[in-house]
Write a structure and sequence with these properties.
The protein is an alpha+beta fold. Strand 13 and strand 14 form a beta hairpin. The structure holds adenosine monophosphate. The site of adenosine monophosphate has 13 residues, from strand 14.
Length: 379
């Protein structure tokens, strides 16, 4: 019996454990909070990431370790990797944890990115704004996610507020200024690379964000023919250069028909949740297969899918449960503003029946306006 250890016990760990059960796998999660939602049905070690006793107990009870949470300190990942197999390797995790390192890698690989500049002082911020231009976004290099640790600057007058908001982080996690890309749309590649270097990707996924948090995903993306080959080639270059093992996501902006890489997530990703029902093999199962050195499953889509994220609190499930296309995922979390608490995926064989079912369901949720743009892209 193989036990997979997962660092971080959130919804990604929870869905990974659900995907691993039919493979006969056991799981152990480690989290800093005893309330982590995977812990509702997966055994858990609770401890600080730097607590060697907790890490030692975790290492002793698992055969291989992987991540639900990308911001596990690099030293903790390395400490574990010296004792048990850890995938993806701490080195790859380290690059993806740092917006400057990942954007620098993208550039080296010939992958376009928004203009960017690293900075440490207010003077350097002023110089970077002058060089990159307005509007732009100040972000923390490390420990930011879901739009946290970001400040948008529209005019020079915003420099003071941006520095007041994030300046104190400069010495702790570093800062990066990026040009604001007036993108036409956002897409992501969710892909998997095996231990033998085999690479497979799900179809290009189209994404919508609200306040920096993923709101909806559609796969396959519309009119992907012109973009998908290049997007997948970018993802493969990144994965090969890092010797990456497991599932990851590459988030891209489409601007003037060109792809610009925003960031890479070194783990299963929210924009791949649709693969649970909408693909031959889900991202969660393929991640486990990769980490365990098993053959990778087909990433072929099964029809057309749209995933709606529930942020803050769960709506009543009946519009999804009573829909012929609907699938419900409640992460078992308590309600809190800005928190991802669940999602619904709608999957149908044709775009037209998906549009009809989704339209009825979003009306039932009373959220037609919120998802109107997603719906308009299906017709
Ligand atoms: P991130 O945490 O970098 O993934 O950013 C979250 C979201 O904020 C992205 O998905 C975009 O919607 C938006 N965003 C981030 N960076 C930029 C940028 N340079 N230009 C335009 N929008 C951005």
């Amino acid at each position: 019996m193989t036990t997979v250890g997962i660092l971080g016990g959130g919804q990604l760990a929870r869905m990974m454990a659900l995907a691993g059960a039919p493979l006969g796998l056991r799981f152990l999660v480690m989290d800093t909070s005893g309330e982590a939602c995977a812990g509702q049905f997966v055994p858990m070690v609770v401890g600080d990431w730097r607590d060697e006793n907790a890490l030692a107990e975790f290492a002793q009870r698992v055969d291989v370790a992987t991540f639900d949470f990308e911001n596990v300190p690099a030293e903790s990942a390395e400490w574990l990797a010296a004792r048990i197999p850890v995938f993806p390797a701490p080195g790859a995790l380290g690059v993806a944890q740092d917006r400057l390192a990942e954007k620098t890698l993208f550039r080296e690989l010939g992958i376009g990115t928004p203009e960017f500049a690293a900075l440490e002082t207010r003077e350097e911020l002023v110089a970077a704004v002058a060089r990159i231009g307005l509007p732009c976004i100040l972000k923390t290099r490390r420990l930011g996610y879901d739009g946290k640790g970001q400040f948008r600057l529209k005019t020079k007058a915003d420099i003071d507020a941006a520095w007041a908001a994030l300046g104190a982080q400069a010495s702790k996690v570093g800062l990066i200024l990026e040009a604001f890309v007036p993108f036409e749309r956002e897409v992501s590649v969710v892909a998997v690379r095996g231990k033998d270097g085999e690479f497979r990707a799900w179809p290009l996924t189209e994404n919508w964000h609200r306040d920096g948090i993923l709101s909806a995903s559609m796969a396959p993306a519309r009119q992907a023919e012109a973009l998908e080959p290049q997007a997948l080639a970018f993802a493969q270059k990144v994965a090969d250069s890092l010797g990456y093992v497991g599932v990851f996501a590459l988030e891209l902006f489409v601007h003037d028909g060109q792809l610009l890489a925003n960031e890479m997530a070194p783990r299963v990703h929210n924009s791949g949740h649709w693969t649970i029902e909408g693909a031959e093999t889900s991202q969660f199962e393929n991640h486990l297969r990769a980490v365990l050195g098993l053959p990778l499953g087909s990433t072929r889509p099964v029809g057309h899918s749209v995933m709606l994220n529930w942020i803050g609190e769960m709506p009543a499930p009946s519009p999804a449960l009573s829909s012929p296309s609907g699938h419900w995922h409640d992460y078992g979390k308590s309600a809190r503003a800005g928190r991802k608490v669940g999602h619904a995926t709608f999957r149908a064989n044709s775009r037209s029946s998906l549009a009809a079912d989704l339209s009825r369901a979003t009306e039932g949720f009373g959220r037609s306006a919120e998802f109107a743009e997603v719906l308009s892209r299906l017709s």
